[in-house]
Design brief:
Layout lengths: L2 E6 L10 E9 L2 E11 L4 E2 L4 E2 L4 H26 L6 H9 L9 H14 L7 H22 L11 H13 L5 H20 L25 H9 L5 H16 L3 H5 L6 E3 L5 E6 L6 E5 L2 H9 L1 H7 L8 H14 L8 H13 L6 H8 L8 H26 L1
Antiparallel strand pairs: 1-2, 2-3, 4-5, 6-7, 7-8
Helix pairs in contact: 1-2, 3-4, 3-6, 4-6, 5-6, 8-12, 8-13, 13-15
Length: 403
């Protein structure tokens, strides 16, 4: 049995001060919401009744219109039951909207084609994680279409700025994504819309009209004191000790989780002076990283020599989920209040291990596998901010002693 609810979105008033009226059709845990392209003043809406006050001719006509929509929905449901068909919210809303099998190019179908070609390029010009992100992006857009319009795909020519604004709002509210994650999903989708534009299916990309701006996020990294505390901590639990060693190795090399997890003996090479180097193409960008191994990093590798001989891999790296979970335990054991993640290790290498000790921005950029120095400059800005905060503390202590 379907349930129908009419409601207004008070937080999205129109220019004249009125609020849009929406209809929600639901069954069990399944529902679809749609705009009725009607509005009313907030004071005229009676939430308990799902109607406007029946006190004017305009309001009476509006209530009659809402009644008609309700009758249409129930009439479609009765028709499906009479035909012996299963009643679903999606099918009811498809018939309600009069959605026929479209003849034009479909966006999700185009996205599937794009992803299929991308899959064939994994390991060549495309990273596996990039492919996975596009699979997720397609899944979320389909989820949005189903939840808000009761359809599983949409014609490319039907795309407009309003639809993309709704999708942006959906990602940030229903999916609870932050601004930067939302921007990334929209940019992924924008790539497909641009593909449609290149093929001449549409003239403009409506996503270009959205104000998509990435917000600066402060990246956490460990100080020299915290690194030392983590390194010298006596740990009697094998799994935590292994995770600590992998994390420290990342702090000393700048490798991301996916890269350290795939390290093998082939990635160790000897330089002209006999020094051991780590040579590895980044999984994310395929940019080559050339990293001279510091003594502490070599000691960690030596510790797992038997494991390396047996498996061909350099370190015993657990799943990313377990790694991050165990790092939280380690942080507690070592009295570190920062949120330890595998990403934190990479940031620590860029700031505390290299830049803070005088390494040039250009060399750090090469070791991190960045495509340009501009990508590395952010770490220098973070470091400058950290130095400034430390000096502020020193200054306040000196002033306090003098007083």
């Amino acid at each position: 049995m379907l349930s129908i609810l009419f409601f207004v979105k008070r937080r999205k008033p129109l220019k004249d001060g009125s609020v849009p009226i929406f209809m929600r059709v639901s069954s069990h845990q399944e529902y679809v919401e749609c705009s009725l392209r009607r509005s009313t003043m907030p004071s005229q809406w009676v939430t308990a009744k799902g109607r406007v006050r029946n006190n004017t001719l305009v309001n009476k006509q509006l209530n009659e219109y809402l009644d008609q929509q309700e009758f249409r929905i129930y009439d479609i449901e009765k028709g499906l039951l009479a035909e012996g068909k299963q009643v679903s919210v999606q099918e009811v809303m498809r018939q309600y909207r009069g959605v026929e099998q479209p003849e034009g190019e479909m966006l999700c179908k185009l996205y599937e084609e794009h992803n299929s070609r991308m899959k064939e390029l994994i390991g060549k010009t495309v990273a596996a994680n990039t492919y996975k992100r596009h699979l997720t992006s397609l899944k979320l857009f389909r989820e949005f279409l189903t939840a808000t319009r009761g359809i599983g795909d949409i014609e490319v020519k039907a795309l407009d700025a309003q639809l993309m604004e709704e999708y942006q709002h959906y990602l940030m509210t229903v999916r609870s994504n932050n601004n930067n994650t939302t921007v990334k999903y929209l940019r992924n989708l924008s790539k497909i819309v641009n593909l449609a534009k290149t093929r001449g299916l549409i003239q403009t990309n409506p996503i270009d009209l959205l104000p998509l701006r990435m917000q600066t996020v402060e990246r956490e990294f460990l100080t020299q004191d915290e690194l030392k505390r983590l390194e010298e901590k006596q740990i009697g639990i094998s799994r935590l000790e292994q995770v600590r060693d992998v994390f420290l190795f990342c702090c000393l090399t700048g490798l991301a989780y996916v890269d350290v997890a795939s390290l093998s003996t082939e990635n160790i090479v000897e330089g002209k002076r006999g020094r051991q180097w780590l040579r590895k193409a980044r999984n994310k960008t395929n940019n080559m990283c050339n990293i001279p191994l510091l003594r502490p990093a070599l000691r960690i590798l030596e510790k797992y020599a038997e494991y390396r001989a047996a498996t061909g891999k350099l370190l015993p790296v657990p799943s990313n989920q377990k790694m991050n979970a165990y790092l939280k335990e380690l942080a507690t054991l070592c009295g570190i209040t920062k949120n330890l993640t595998t990403h934190c290790a990479r940031h620590t290498f860029a700031t505390t291990v290299t830049l803070a000790n005088g390494a040039s921005l250009e060399n750090v950029s090469k070791m991190l596998g960045h495509s340009s120095v501009r990508m590395t400059q952010h770490y220098a800005k973070i470091l400058n901010g950290s130095i400034e905060r430390d000096m502020d503390k020193i200054e306040s202590e000196l002033i306090g002693e003098n007083e």
